[in-house]
Design goal:
heterodimer, A: 343 residues, alpha/beta, Fusion Protein Consisting Of Minor Coat Protein, Glycine Rich Linker, Tola, And A His Tag, Chain: A, Domain 2, five-stranded mixed β-sheet, two-stranded parallel ribbon, 12% strand, elongated, B: 117 residues, alpha+beta, Arc Repressor Mutant, subunit A, 5 helices, 3 strands
Chain lengths: 343, 117
């Protein structure tokens, strides 16, 4: 079997390339011509003879015709893009872009629409996927296997009443203020005490024998003194905010120091300067039992940034001397007017 | 080969049918094989030139009647052609059509006296 050596094939290939044959056709024609050459070698010709014969058959003109024929035959189904790019560099990229244009547009429109819908529907989607937790939603239901007694805690019993010691009885003489009554009801036996009686006895409800001169001073209230040693002083509630207290809270150093502090820190807001606004801002705040200032809130302002400025400065203030109620520091709601006045 | 030019003229119209028909008989063929087959079977009366054959093969491939597979043989790529299912149908139809046409042509070419006899 006679086969063409590679350099012979390369020679044929070079010839075909030089003839500007359609590259799509080239490998096939090469194979065809190579087969033909092999056939001739088989018949006993030398390669040079075979080559010459082939070149004579497949001269440049024939090959050119082949290319043109081929192109025309296939051109029937060509698109506009193929015609536009006829004979131009299709590798450059514009051809690819142009050919894929329809697809790209379709895809981008689809993506755009999807994205837009997603953006619009996202809040709704989120709401349906993650429902709000309602406070009345019951998470767990527990069945108890034993009854639980819910009873109020036993209150500490009130201290037992102190037995009243038998007080020495005073000698009293019945002495009541006379009242006007009908005749038949008049207590005839009763006669008001005379001065002599009252020297030794005290006037009372009934006439009673007893010690003549008892200088008894009874304590004003037995229950108060009869404690078990605990101070029964009423302690003011800590959390309650007082408005009126025994001792008002105070800026440490007094009003003069507060004035200096305000003057140092207060900036006249530029808006207020422009609008030439002046006046008083009433701030309400709480002075805690530790003297801290909380809950600063302008209750009546003049605007133009003055209210905010006043609130800002008050928040800057150091701790106050807390207000006191019954000797204990308590929270006090305090109202402070701050004056904005232009020079 | 002086009749080559005229034979080419007829071949041009029937080439598709010839190629399809040959491929229907064989599993797969490559270009040169087809030309050789045609030459052998017609005793050289019809000689397909590659210039005519390959455009037709490519056209048929484009139409979806043929599929190709490339095999490397002896350091070069050889492209084998075989029929697809629609190609098979097309081969049968076209062969039938051509036969009917040839019959008609024969009737036309026959001397009138013979035809009427």
């Amino acid at each position: 079997m006679k086969r063409l050596q590679e350099n012979r094939i390369a020679q044929l290939s070079k010839y075909l390339q030089a003839s500007k044959l359609d590259p799509e056709l080239l490998p096939e024609i090469l194979d065809h011509l190579a087969c033909e050459a092999e056939e001739r070698l088989w018949d006993g010709n030398s390669f040079q003879q075979a080559y010459d014969k082939i070149v004579a058959d497949a001269d440049l003109k024939t090959l050119h015709h082949l290319s043109v024929d081929h192109k025309n035959l296939l051109a029937m189904d060509k698109t506009l893009d193929d015609i536009v790019f006829e004979g131009r560099n299709k590798q450059y990229g514009a051809y690819q872009l142009r050919r894929g244009y329809g697809q790209t547009m379709q895809r981008s429109v689809l993506m755009g629409v999807t994205l837009f819908l997603l953006m619009v529907l996202l809040p709704n989607l989120y709401a349906t996927l993650v429902p709000d937790k309602k406070p009345e939603d019951i998470r767990f239901e527990i069945t108890l296997d034993r009854n639980i007694d819910i009873r109020p805690e036993p209150k500490p019993l009130p201290p037992p009443p102190v037995k009243e010691e038998a007080q020495p009885v005073e000698k009293t003489v019945k002495s009541v203020i006379p009242t006007v009554v009908p005749d038949e009801q008049v207590d005839v036996e009763y006669t008001p005490p005379v001065v002599e009686d009252l020297q030794t006895a005290k006037p009372g409800e009934v006439t009673q024998d007893g010690l003549v001169d008892v200088n008894v001073i009874t304590a004003p209230s037995a229950t108060v003194t009869s404690g078990n040693g605990l101070a029964v002083e009423v302690e003011p509630e800590k959390e309650k905010e007082y408005i009126l207290v025994d001792q008002k809270p105070e800026f440490i150093g007094g009003n003069a120091a507060m004035g200096a502090f305000l003057q140092k820190h207060l900036r006249y807001p530029s808006q207020a300067i422009k609008a030439s606004v002046q006046g008083r801002v009433f701030l309400e705040f709480t002075v805690g039992s530790d003297g801290k200032i909380e809950n600063v809130k302008p209750i009546k302002g003049i605007g133009f940034g003055c209210d905010e400025e006043a609130a800002r400065v008050v928040k800057l203030m150091p701790e106050w001397k807390p207000g006191k109620q019954a000797g204990t520091p308590v929270r006090v709601r305090f109202t402070l007017p701050i004056v904005f006045k232009m020079d | 080969m002086e009749n080559n030019a005229t034979s080419n003229e007829y071949v041009r119209g029937t080439l598709k049918t010839i190629v399809l028909n040959l491929l229907a008989e064989h599993d797969r063929m490559y270009g040169y094989e087809i030309t050789q087959e045609v030459k052998d079977r017609t005793g050289g009366a019809i000689a397909l030139t590659f210039g005519a054959l390959y455009p037709v093969l490519h056209k048929l491939e484009q139409e979806g009647l043929l599929v190709t597979e490339s095999v490397e043989v002896d350091g070069r790529l050889r492209k084998y052609y075989s029929l697809t299912t629609p190609g098979n149908e097309a081969a049968r139809n076209k062969t039938n059509d051509l036969e009917r046409f040839l019959d008609a042509v024969r009737l036309l070419l026959a001397p009138k006296s013979l035809a009427t006899e």
